[in-house]
Amino acid sequence: MNISLEGKSALVTGAGRGIGLAIVQKLATAGASVLLVDVDAGALEEAEKSLRGARVSTLAGDLTRSDFPQAAIDNLIRDFGSVDIIVNNAGYTWDSVIQKTTDEQFQAMLDIHAVVPFRILRAASSWIRETAKKENEAKQRVMRKVVNITSISGLDGNAGQAGYSSGKAAIVGLTKTVAKEWGRYNVTVNAVGFGLIDTRLIKPMEDAETNIEVGGRQVHVGMQAAVREQAARMIPLGRIGTPEDAANAVFFFCCPLSDYVTGEVLVCGGGVHF
Q1: Percent of the chain at pLDDT above 90?
Q2: Secondary structure of the chain: what % helix, strand, coil (to 5)?
Q3: What's the topology of domain 9-196+242-268?
Q4: Helical H runs in 87-139?
Q5: What residue spans define the domains of the chain?
Q6: Which residues of 150-168 are buried (b: 16+ CB within 10 A; e: fewer)?
Q7: How far apart are CA 91 and CA 69, in angstroms?
């Protein structure tokens, strides 16, 4: 089946690498114009090179700045003329057991996984409402899409991830609420919950790539190699997911196949629930 997103404009956060970049590739291949947003300007530059020939633009900056989500929406409208698809994908892990989790650490997880998507959707709300009103008056139904990213940690909890799990649980509540508010505007709002997807967030801790810089601080991500191997063995489908696997699940909620699906959470984890 050839699914076309020609004429659609999309915003993808955390788009410089990994799952975010795989989502961009799916959307762009289907014909969408895509604004890639990421904190890492270098990653965005490399991503843009890999997407040569696609209709894309980039915006580098810190999404947790209170004014940046509005800037992202403004750039999407300026570059491509509309807001048709929003994928709130940006995020990272900063893990500790609860007695070792600082206020800063806990708040950082809430900020990137719940506050940022909230601000992006709030920034888009005026344009979406005004545009949908005109379309409804003209008896036109134009479907738009929001896909938020959660995790099996947010749905089932995970030891050592009090902050991450809380942020990923919060985005589920936001998803279900905005789905009820925006249905009248022909916007579907859904979430995809990832299990183990092979990105730098779950690379073996011995890999230097698992040290990432966020907000001027070094955050150690990744998994112990033995724990990663044990977790992989627990996945019914027998393997850790790829970024492309993750992007496929997100693409379903971005395309017309899901036009009558809203307020739902789709788990993309190979059948695993920890």
Answers
A1: 85
A2: 50, 20, 30
A3: Rossmann fold (3.40.50)
A4: 103-110, 116-137
A5: 9-196+242-268
A6: bbbbbbeebeebbbbbbbb
A7: 14
DSSP state of 255: S
Instruction: Give the chain's count of helices (H) and strands (E).
Output: 9, 9
Asked if 33 and 53 count as a contact pair (C-beta separation under 8 A), the reply is no
Q: State residue 232's pLDDT score.
A: 86
Q: Which residues pair with 87 in a beta bridge?
A: 12, 147
Give pTM, 2 decimals.
Answer: 0.93
Cα separation, 36 vs 24, in Å, equals 8
Q: Which residues, listed in sequence order, are joined to residue 86 by a DSSP beta bridge?
A: 11, 146
- pLDDT tens-digit profile of 189-228? 999 999 999 988 777 766 655 567 776 776 767 777 877 8
Catalytically annotated residues: 164, 168
Q: What's the whole-number mean pLDDT along residues 236-264?
A: 97
Instruction: Write down the pLDDT at residue 206.
Output: 65
Mean pLDDT of the chain: 94
The answer to whether 19 and 246 have CB atoms below 8 angstroms apart is yes
The sheet carrying 85-88 orders its strands as 56-60, 33-38, 9-13, 85-88, 144-151, 187-194, 265-268
Q: Which long-range contacts (CB under 8 A, 24 or more apart) does 50-57 make?
A: 50/21, 51/24, 51/25, 54/28, 54/29, 55/28, 55/80, 56/24, 56/28
Question: Where is pLDDT greater, at 154 or 203?
Answer: 154
CA-to-CA distance for 9 and 75, rounded, in angstroms? 11
DSSP 97: -
The 10s digit of each residue's pLDDT in 110-121 is 999 999 999 999
The Cα 150–Cα 269 span in angstroms is 12
